[in-house]
Amino acid sequence: MKLVFKSIERDGCGSIGLIPEESEDMWHAYNLVAVGDAVTASTVRKVQTESSTGSSTSNRVRTTLTITVETIDFDTQACVLRLKGRNIVENQYVKMGAYHTLDLELNRKFTLQKPLWDSVALERVEMACDPAANADVAAVVMQEGLAHVCLITPSMTLVRSKIDITIPRKRKGFVQQHEKGLNKFYDAVMQAILRHVDFNIVKCVIVASPGFVKDQFFEYMMQQAVKTDNKLLIDNKSRFLLVKASSGFKHSLKEVLQEPAVMAKISDTKAASEVKLLENFYTMLQLEPAKAFYGKKHIERANEALAIEILMISDKLFRCQDIQQRKEYVALVDSVRENGGEVKIFSSMHVSGEQLDQLTGIAAVLRFPMPELEDSDAEGDSDSD
Amino acid sequence: MARHRDFRNRTFSDDYDDDDVYGHSVEEDSCMSPSDAAQWIYDRSRNQQIQFLQNHNNIQEETEEDLADTSFSSQERRESIDLRSLNLDEEDEAKLMSCLDELRNVIGEAVADNILIQTVIKHNFDFSKSLDDILNRKTKEPEVPKPELVKPVVLIDPVKAPVITTVENTPKVVATNLEPKTVGVVKGFKVGQDGSSSSQPQTPRDQSPCTERLSKTEQVDEIKSTPKVKENKVDANALYVNERGSDKDHLYIVVIGHVDAGKSTLMGRLLCEMGEVSQKTLHKYEQESKKIGKQSFMYAWVLDETGEERVRGITMDVGRAQFETKTKRVIILDAPGHADFIPNMITGAGQADVALLVVDATRGEFESGFDLGGQTREHALLVRSLGVSQLAVAVNKLDTSNWSQERFNEITKKLKTFLKQAGFKDSDVTYVPCSGLTGENLVKSPTEAELLKWYNGPCLLDVIDKFNVPERPVSKPLRLSINDVYKGTGSGFCVAGRIENGVINKGDKVLVCPTKEMAEVRNISINEMPSNVAFAGDQVSVTLTGVDMQNVSVGYVLSDPIQQVPVTTRFEARIVVFNVKVPITKGFPVLIHHQSLVESANIVKLKALLNKSTGELVKKKPRCLGNNCVAVVEVEVCRPICVERYKDVKELGRVMLRVAGTTIAAGLVTDIVNT
């Protein structure tokens, strides 16, 4: 993302101009825009004009509109952000107060005006505009009959393709059916890789599976590549990385990202560090349960005691519709930072973020044990389902 | 952009096409014949009639049976009982559950749940007292109903029963399946009568609204044919006796153990000694294995058939073979030992009645397999959690330590303590020293002088022969869990799996769940032998027509179309947590293994932490679950699956939870949350 301008008043209101450059920036934009903000962007609108004789013509006009956002829609697969709201700036084609839906486009500037730019939002802008080269990694987690082809970007894990094929088991005299099924499966995975992985962007392709599936698959793929003279695969052979995973389900990506070989390759992605943090939290919960807590109430009380060392919070909490709630979470983040604690905002698009979301979305490792929190939780958990 | 459509220039007929789905007939599109449609369409009215007929049939049955076992109170005849109807508070319920578990450990499945519950309550949750009571009752009972019970079985279907020629044969079989069976027969009736919550809904959940579409004649046809099918189900017991009375009992045995313990070799050798493998094949294997320098694998090749397995020298998928002993027809399921293939092993173990644990006696090898992280422990825990209670332990490769008694004792001592913890009773575990490669003490008594010095127990084959065959719930509604889908010869396709409950006949209509599609059974074969009927406990492959092969996958269940298997995405389970590296919290992503099904799931709620030995409630809504605790949790699965409450169908009520290649917990389904 490119930052065009930034004009923020002392009281926190103001506007920022941004140019999204890649699909991931849409995710950042999605996390920035909240209901009630004003967004200005260029868009296409079909305008009908009625001539004096009563005949009407309609034509598409490109114009710049400013709307107050009412609904926000994010398509994770296509990475498209749709903002719907009412027009608030006079325009020669569109009446004031008329509804319009903005599709934010890549490489076109949009301006976001907020009544209050809080620290979390500003941090998000900073992060989005960080020019550091991002490491995109493709990962294929597979087991016999099931594979997920995923794309891991710094703040998102996108499942590009899921392959689920029933492979007949081996049985007396029917071994070839098993092998045929297996080949069909490998072929499907290979096609998915060819279709969804762009070797210009992707640094490495991780192939992970239990047992020998990954080796067998890799062998099959290379054989096929040689057979069909597929330059793309042959040239990029060195980019494939075979690792062990326990299953072909999506959440085994977590294990893959903890693998030292993978860590070395993608150390700068958020995904790997998040997995590690969450793992640390769980280890703490096992060893010293009084030093690891989750759930809003516990965390707030721990914060009152200035006990929080590392706060993990899912960005889903900041996207909530309720402005009051968002304010509370922002205040919590600010206060933890003020008191020397570390705050990690997890992306809910990663596997670890998904898990944190399930775990009330907020968790913390404390500096010192607070056993009194543990005892008082009988009524505390009732709010969460 | 919907708001800004150009309405004036629109052709409205285009719009109607996609909007007007409701008034649109499905049949017009897909030109289905009415008879085809009848297969797929479910309607309430038809089922009510069926239900009525079924009830009607059963009313007569009921009276007969009432005469037969008037000695039982109506309470006693109920097989399972809804705990809620007892109005217990939570603590009592927990106590009750723990008592029941203990009792089950001791007496197994022989006594119906409700009897246990009654006794336990009577003795105010005192385990030992109620055990005494039940055992006393057990010894008394069989004598009373035995002579009377023989009659109804014959009465129900006089046409079929006379085939039982050997008189002394019949009473024996009937006596073994005393209570649950007679109860099971009237189950369909009972459900309607007492209105207690049951897993089998009377009317299918997904009723189609288009009842009128069905032609009248079709309906009548359906009804006419149903009683015929029903009849078969009613006298399932008689049929079972009829078909299998003279046959040898089928016993499914899963072979488990650490990788390279010699499971496949032991079984391969056993098969060779039994004469199940031709000399020619064996010679071929010997030559080929020699060629790649792995001669010791020649016997393992009998079971490891794929090229991959042979090259790597490990079993990857469950191998299958069978042989006959004096009293039994034994089907071996050779499970892979490698940690990566535990999902396959679970599939195999889920189909087994008993287990054979193979341990490597070589110094160092046994220890590495038995220590934390070795598969000896995990496998043993898994099979126990999957409901296997009888175990034989083959102490393999004892020839490497020169048949030393010391070594044998050392191993058995270690295993004994562990297996006791895992929940195996000492009396149900047998230890056999043997060697798979040399074939010592497999089918014949030992000849090795060193071994003869101190061992005079049975050989492996005798141990297998001595296993008890568990009772088969033949008369319950059909449940067949699918563990393989493949193209057979001829029309349709085949699914293979184990019948957990009930009977399946050629020509039966079955419901493929969780997709709830109707299919027809074209062919049945048991262990590659064609058959007209198969019973609970059998490993069968069934040729289906009426559904597409694409729409059936491993882990699905074939169910009785009327008493359907519940389909859900969320259920409550009581779990036992094994050794875990990180504690289980809310939102923990796990893989759930249920029969052959593997599905990703989340633990969405930690409901209660229970005391491990007493089952009392320790803490409500715990923050996390640590090692070795017992808890009640709610699990949400990504896709709908077929589960049953443990008290209804045991096999379909067991789940395993696994994370990152290790088993973290085993659970029993206590409640199914309707979604």
From TrEMBL, chain A:
Q: Which InterPro entries match?
A: eFR1_2_sf, eRF1_2, eRF1_3, eRF1_Pelota-like_N, Pelota/DOM34_N, Pelota_N, Ribosomal_eL30-like_sf, TF_pelota
- Cofactor entry: a divalent metal cation
Q: Name one GO biological process term.
A: RNA surveillance
Name one molecular function that GO assigns to this entry.
Answer: metal ion binding
Subcellular location per UniProt equals:
Cytoplasm
Q: Which UniProt keywords apply?
A: Cytoplasm, Metal-binding
Q: What is its main location?
A: cytoplasm
Say which domain of life the source belongs to: Eukaryota
Cross-referenced SMART domains: eRF1_1
A Pfam family assignment: eRF1_2
A Gene Ontology cellular component where this protein is annotated is:
cytoplasm
Q: Tell me where in this chain the eRF1/Pelota-like N-terminal domain is found.
A: 1-130
Q: Which family does it belong to?
A: Belongs to the eukaryotic release factor 1 family. Pelota subfamily.
According to its UniProt entry, the function of this protein is described as: Component of the Pelota-HBS1L complex, a complex that recognizes stalled ribosomes and triggers the No-Go Decay (NGD) pathway. In the Pelota-HBS1L complex, pelo recognizes ribosomes stalled at the 3' end of an mRNA and engages stalled ribosomes by destabilizing mRNA in the mRNA channel.
NCBIfam families reported for this sequence: pelota (TIGR00111)
Name of this protein: Protein pelota homolog
Q: Which gene encodes it?
A: LOC118266871
Automatic annotation (TrEMBL), chain B:
Q: Name one GO biological process term.
A: translation
Q: Where is the Tr-type G domain?
A: 248-474
**Where is it localised?**
Cytoplasm
Q: Does the keyword rRNA-binding apply?
A: no
A Pfam short name: GTP-eEF1A_C
GO cellular component terms, alphabetically, are:
cytoplasm
Segments of this protein annotated with the region Disordered: 189-219
What keywords are assigned to this protein?
Cytoplasm, GTP-binding, Hydrolase, Nucleotide-binding, Phosphoprotein, Protein biosynthesis, Translation regulation
Please list the residue ranges that the record marks as compositionally biased, kind Polar residues.
194-210
Which is one GO molecular function term here?
GTPase activity
State the CDD domains in the record: EF1_alpha, HBS1-like_II, HBS1_C_III
Reaction catalysis annotation: GTP + H2O = GDP + phosphate + H(+)
What broad class describes the main subcellular location of this protein? cytoplasm
Query: At the top level of its lineage, which domain of life is listed?
Result: Eukaryota
Q: What is stated as this protein's family in its record?
A: Belongs to the TRAFAC class translation factor GTPase superfamily. Classic translation factor GTPase family. EF-Tu/EF-1A subfamily.
The entry's protein name is Protein HBS1
- What is the organism of origin for this protein? Spodoptera frugiperda
- Gene of origin? LOC118262497
